Amino acid sequence: MNKLAIATPAIADDGCAISDRPIYVTQPHLPPLEEFIPYLRQIWDTKILTNGGPMHRQLEEALCEYLGVEHIALFNNGTLALLTALQALRITGEVITTPYSFVATAHSLLWNGIKPVFVDIDPHTFNLDPAKIEAAITPQTTAIVPVHCYGHPCDVEAIQKIADNYNLRVIYDAAHAFGVRDAGGSILRHGDLSALSFHATKVFNTFEGGAIICPDAKTKLRIDQLKNFGYVDEVTVVAPGINGKMSEVNAALGLLQLNYIDQALERRKQIDRTYRELLEGIKGIRCLNDAGEKRANYAYFPILVGHEYPLSRDALYHGLKDAGIHSRRYFHPLISDFPMYRGLSSAHRSNLPVAANAAQQVLCLPIYPDLDMSVVEHIIRFIAAQ
């Protein structure tokens, strides 16, 4: 086994530095600063900073057009969007969800006083496995909260069929799924609601932000009220809402970001293709395939480090880190392994063998539009040389 001795900064075969900075697993895509200044001047001129100002309204319209949806409600982050989606549909009791996600998925349930019921994932897509859902349904089950993991669509038809049979609501955690389309259009149109994240690490960011895709104007109105303390007008409050409004500065950045999103997605696609071509044939390394989406967003690049690879997943993770390359064990540990969930019967690893195995093998490699191809090639050489 050939051990590559590479210290920060990352060094190429010819001895030249690949980068004088650490290579992170992701990096926010930002437009030219000088193009943002005119938007800020408009905000300074209007002196409207929040509460659904002109930038906010423009971004909602622009996103509906870009994403191919009818109604969208903007939020100051994706977690509050998910919290409010559950409130808007008055979800209670038990909700079936995945243990293989960021903790916000299950935390949103706990914050609403809802019991998460974890179901195992599909071994090919790492999304909630529809074949496992039905057995987890009880008289207390009111909804299903699947995640389009890594931006790959869930089996939406199978999930909807189960929901219809048992009169359950479906709220998609679509934090990874901006711009993803299936054969019928936006993946966000499925379910009762879909919640998006525009966090700095996402393919489309507004520094911080989020949104709920709404099926009709009536639902959007209720959600808009819930995110503004439940206010209907100056003297009328109809629900115990929260402050989830997106600011004008965040909305302005989103408007500018839309000018560059297709370019950013194309660059991600090129990096994804290069990883796949160069990783092919490395024993013990497997790439996840897509889930049949017509348009992917290449939000993440996960690999699985199997037993045939000379190093364990954690050893490879630390080796890359020592070389100035920051990958991420995403998602590890499982949500069900955290202390606030361990007491749930559905959290036992014996019920979640596929998710438990994935959490021990997965490693997300760096991918973002500004990532230089020479760095991608260097990362592959490092992995191949072990």
UniProtKB/TrEMBL annotation:
The keyword S-adenosyl-L-methionine does not apply. The active site is at K202. GO terms for molecular function: pyridoxal phosphate binding; transaminase activity. The modification N6-(pyridoxal phosphate)lysine is found at K202. InterPro entries: DegT/StrS_aminotransferase (IPR000653), PyrdxlP-dep_Trfase (IPR015424), PyrdxlP-dep_Trfase_major (IPR015421). The keyword Ubl conjugation does not apply. Gene3D superfamilies: Type I PLP-dependent aspartate aminotransferase-like (Major domain). This is dTDP-4-amino-4,6-dideoxygalactose transaminase. It comes from Pollutimonas bauzanensis.
